[in-house]
Design a protein that fits this description.
Keywords: Repeat, Transducer, WD repeat. This protein is mainly β. The chain has 2 domains: about 5-75; about 85-380, Methylamine Dehydrogenase, Chain H. About 15% of the residues lie in helices and about 45% in strands. It has helices at about 5-10, 15-20, 35-75; strands at about 25-30, 30-35, 85-90, 95-100, 105-110, 115-120, 125-130, 140, 150, 155-160, 175-180, 185-190, 195-200, 205-210, 215-220, 225-230, 240-245, 250-255, 260-265, 270-275, 280-285, 290-295, 300-305, 315-320, 325-330, 335-340, 345-350, 355-360, 370-375, 375-380. The strands form 8 sheets. The chain has a 4-stranded antiparallel β-sheet, with no helix packed on it. Strands 4-5-6-7 form a 4-stranded antiparallel β-sheet, with no helix packed on it. It has a 4-stranded antiparallel β-sheet with strand order 8-9-10-11, with no helix packed on it. Helix 1 (about 5-10) packs across helix 3 (about 35-75). The longest helix has about 35 residues, at about 35-75. The chain is globular, with a radius of gyration of 26 Å.
Length: about 375
């Protein structure tokens, strides 16, 4: 069926064209339809849109088939063994957040006790510590250079502390307030340099700030409730990040324009954690609905759900192994579940924490991961 015939059968005849004179004579069920040039153009545009929609649907079906085929042909993982190799003790209350330094050895953690601690993960020694002016320090991040850490929480601020000064000097003396929200700070992450930092807040927004001047560079509005988490795209030249929140949405943002470029809403409760796949083509989310979900950015859809009927507690934190084959997820039932990303099956359950697992991050070299818990400790697993 030609474009015009398709449109004629959809819209009916153009009466104006009959008065002007036929440009094209089309016959459907022996009825003649005459179309002016404007109508022909409209018909062709409609047909082109229809063909694009059909091609998109076919590509999604093909993608689902490919994912299924790859999962079937992938070799099963061998025996999975990970143990607690180090336990970091020093916080006086719930550990809420942690981050690795790029040197693969140091860790920064924050807690409900108001303390931010920099650790040597190998020796378990505390290298730096600072007490914030408020409790519930819900966010912390290491700068790419390893020379500073950022943190914040119920003070609604993001503060940056340099680490290059004399250890005998107080960290608080070098404190720099960078960001200010109208509600609590829930997450923060440096971009690919020490000069800019992304923040997420209970005020429903994310924001990009200049660290040196404290100037707001870009704000991101679109969530309908508290934003709880964010993650920056892994590409060195990437300009996108993903956020999740209490509105059950995961949103992908362009940092240059401030616009949301993709949005996903398949969870049934708050999204507590988001993490990009190592290639940057997908991301995973963990939610209070007790599921983790994988979204393919190219296909613009959810492609996998990681859940079991026996898991009834929320997923608080998620991260991928360096290869992307494994997904580590911390839960409110004190466990860490390890999932086979391709096959969608659980390959291991890690026990050790004595309260809910609140934060989890794989080390930059992929040889270990660190988890933080409401039991006041952090654990290094390998």
């Amino acid at each position: 069926m030609c474009d015009q015939t398709f449109a004629a059968s959809t819209f009916g005849s153009c009466e104006k064209c009959k008065d002007i004179g036929p440009l094209r004579n089309l016959y459907i069920n022996s009825d003649q339809f005459n179309y002016c040039s404007l109508c022909v153009e409209l018909c062709m545009e409609h047909a082109a849109t229809y063909m694009m929609e059909m091609a998109h649907k076919r590509s999604l079906v093909f993608l689902s088939y490919l994912v299924h085929q790859v999962a079937e042909r992938a070799e099963a993982l061998g025996q999975f063994v990970m143990k607690t190799r180090r336990t970091l003790k020093g916080h006086g209350n719930k550990v809420l957040c942690m981050d690795w330094c790029r040197d693969k050895r140091r860790i920064v953690s924050s807690s409900q006790d108001g303390k931010v601690i920099v650790w040597d993960a190998f020796t378990t020694n505390k290298e730096h510590a600072v007490t914030m002016p408020c409790t519930w320090v819900m966010a912390c991040a290491y700068a790419p250079s390893g020379c500073a850490v950022a943190c914040g929480g119920l003070d609604n601020k993001c503060s940056v502390y340099p680490l290059t000064f004399d250890k005998n000097e107080s960290m608080a003396a070098k404190k720099k307030s960078v960001a200010m929200h109208t509600n609590y700070l829930s997450a923060c992450s440096f971009t690919n340099s020490d000069m800019q930092i992304l923040t997420a807040s209970g005020d429903g927004t994310c924001a990009l700030w200049d660290v040196e001047s404290g100037q707001l560079l870009q704000s991101f509005h679109g969530h309908g409730a508290d934003v709880l988490c964010l993650d920056l795209a892994p590409s060195e030249t990437g300009h996108t990040f993903v956020s999740g929140g209490c509105d059950k949405k995961a949103m992908v943002w362009d940092m240059r324009s401030g616009q949301c470029i993709q949005s996903f809403e398949t969870h049934e409760s708050d999204i507590n954690s988001v993490r990009y796949y190592p290639s940057g083509d997908a991301f995973v989310s963990g939610s209070d609905d007790a599921t983790c979900r994988l979204y393919d950015l190219r296909a613009d859809r959810e492609v996998a759900v990681y859940s079991k009927d026996s898991i009834i507690f929320g997923a608080s934190s998620v991260d991928f192994s360096l290869s992307g084959r494994l997904l580590f997820a911390g839960y409110n039932d004190y466990t860490i579940n390890v999932w086979d990303v391709l096959k969608g099956t659980r390959v291991s359950i890690l026990f050790g924490h004595e309260n809910r697992v609140s934060t989890l991050r794989v080390s930059p070299d992929g040889t270990a991961f660190c988890s933080g818990s409401w039991d006041h400790t952090l654990r290094i697993w390998a």
